[in-house]
Design a protein that fits this description.
Helices cover about 75% and strands about 0% of the residues. The protein has about 525 residues and is an all-alpha fold.
Length: about 525
């Protein structure tokens, strides 16, 4: 169906519904933050607070480094996935994008286990002159964890864009005498560049707002998100100003990133055939295989630490069920489920409405609505939770946390549903209407099943995202905590075995949730027509 310019009459009602939910969930607490903060306190924090400046500069530096690593490895991976044909390509692609499903806290605990003293990985990097301590904890370990996530995000976005490149234009440029590099620069790069920039921007925001990974691997370092949570929990008066500054910085980064988000229109008739790799491309294949190898090694190291205690045993796993701290684990598990289930339900409905609207928005008004729907990618979960505590101090954290987690998971579900939005042919829609079908019945017959599948898959995807969230859960002071927060507590206590067992349990839950939602992810970029 040809795209039409959206206006008040043909813009889908779903856009209005999604924006109303967005205003209720996000705009209210953000307005409370803006009203409560004193501008002079904000300027004083920026001008004189050494702790905030150190956290901001370190957070931005590690996020930029992770983003650069992720962009390089992600583009190499996307090129190999879409243009080359070699054994194991599908497996490597699945492993490289696995950090999208692996909880960040589980990834951090796995990195600690992988580079622990005496492990084969620590011996290998020592052979190349790299100290294992640098990748076990500290800035290097944080960059490694965030770099793997950035590689998955950039590779996912860029691979979808690469499949939408018109192969006929590339062949025409080569026929007219352009070299391979010049033809790619003229025909491929303009399509891939916005997707790569959007993926890199999202990765930067995630790294800048990281909390759980930095608590586990940071060795005393903090991002602005972590600093705002620590100050708020301690009752420090600087907390409000730091929260506002963190939210404002993330919002600026996010609004820039949203401008690069595009929806590639893949045409199977214009695709380019895959081919065997040439000699120079084998180096690119090695770069693309490195993230997959690291992900496999990290997960194996995590699972081995969880089941080993002077030999292979399930002692650490059993200790979570009937050990000294089993009661706290059960309360945390209940808290995680009670927060993730309503968050996933709200996100599935909210994201489906936004996805239905986003795919049909064209023109200036459509761009404005799309920006309004997608700016939650720039939200700080801790700031949103803090804002809700200001708006309704008496509100139970069990109600605050699902709202914040729904806002955090919303962009992924909305973008996925938008890409899967069924595009019925105009003559089919006209035929249904001419046969006497009402608009609602025609929509239900042509689009209803696809949107039902999208909502179900979006529910599971959002559940996996919400279950592993840490910063909003910490700020909301959830009674009994959640499983990721319990994992952070076990890591602070230095109990490596139980922490690895709990991280493995969180990993299993989130991966199963993403596998249940896989029907949409597997078809990303192949919208039903």
């Amino acid at each position: 169906m040809r795209a039409v310019r959206s206006n008040f009459l043909n813009a889908p009602i779903a856009a209005g519904g999604a924006i109303l939910v967005l205003l209720a969930v996000i705009a209210w607490p953000l307005a409370a933050l803006a009203q409560a903060v004193d501008p002079q306190d904000v300027f004083a924090i920026v001008d004189r607070d050494v702790e905030f400046r150190r956290a901001f500069l370190w957070g931005a530096a590690q996020a930029a480094t992770s983003c650069a690593i992720g962009a390089a490895c992600g583009l190499a991976s996307a090129y190999c996935w879409t243009r080359l044909h070699y054994p194991g390509r599908t497996v490597l692609r699945g492993l490289a994008i696995a950090p999208l499903a692996v909880p960040p806290v589980a990834l951090a605990v796995g990195i600690e286990a992988l580079f622990a003293a005496g492990t084969p990985a620590s011996d290998v990097i020592s052979f190349f002159g790299v100290a294992p301590e640098y990748l076990r904890s500290g800035t290097g370990a944080v960059i490694l964890a965030h770099g793997l996530s950035a590689t998955a995000i950039v590779g996912w976005f860029a691979s979808v864009a690469w499949t939408s490149v018109d192969g006929q234009k590339v062949e025409a440029a080569r026929t007219l005498g352009a070299s391979r590099i010049r033809a790619a620069r003229a025909t491929v790069w303009p399509v891939v560049r916005p997707a790569a920039a959007a993926g890199a921007g999202l990765a930067f925001i995630q790294s800048f707002l990281s909390y759980g990974v930095v608590v586990i691997l940071g060795a005393g370092r903090e991002t602005p998100e972590g600093l705002s949570i620590r100050l708020a929990l301690a009752g420090d008066q600087r907390a409000l100003s730091v929260v506002v500054l963190t939210a404002a910085a993330a919002l600026v980064f996010g609004l820039v990133t949203v401008q690069f988000l595009r929806m590639p229109r893949a045409d199977p008739g214009h695709g380019r055939l895959q081919r065997r790799p040439r000699t120079p491309e084998r180096a690119v294949m090695l770069i693309a295989a490195l993230p997959a190898l690291l992900v496999v090694s990290i997960v194996l190291a995590l699972l081995l630490r969880a089941v080993s205690d002077r030999g292979l045993s399930l002692w650490h796993v059993r200790s979570l069920v009937d050990g000294p701290g089993s009661r706290e684990v059960r309360r945390a598990a209940l808290g995680s489920v009670l927060a993730a289930l309503p968050a996933a339900a709200l996100t599935a409905l909210w994201g489906s409405m936004a996805g239905a609207a986003w795919g049909r928005m064209r023109g200036v008004s459509g761009m404005l609505r799309a920006t309004a729907l997608l700016f939650p990618v720039a939200l700080s979960p801790a700031a949103l939770a803090y804002g809700w505590l200001l708006v309704r101090p008496e509100l139970d954290p069990r109600a605050v946390l699902p709202l914040v987690q729904a806002a955090a998971a919303f962009p992924l579900v909305a973008g996925t549903v938008a890409r899967m939005r069924p595009r019925a042919r105009p003559d089919t829609t006209a035929a249904a209407r001419s046969l006497g079908a009402s608009p609602l019945r025609a929509w239900r017959a042509l689009h209803g099943r696809a949107y039902a599948v999208a909502m179900a898959s979006g529910f599971f995807i959002a559940f996996g995202r919400a279950f592993a969230e840490t910063s909003a859960a910490a700020m909301a002071r959830m009674p009994g905590g959640t499983l990721p927060l319990r994992l952070l507590e076990l890591d602070r206590q230095g109990t490596a075995g139980p922490a690895a067992a709990l991280a493995g349990a969180i990993l299993l839950i989130c991966v199963v949730a993403f596998l249940l939602g896989d029907p949409i992810i597997a078809r990303l970029g192949r919208a039903r027509r």
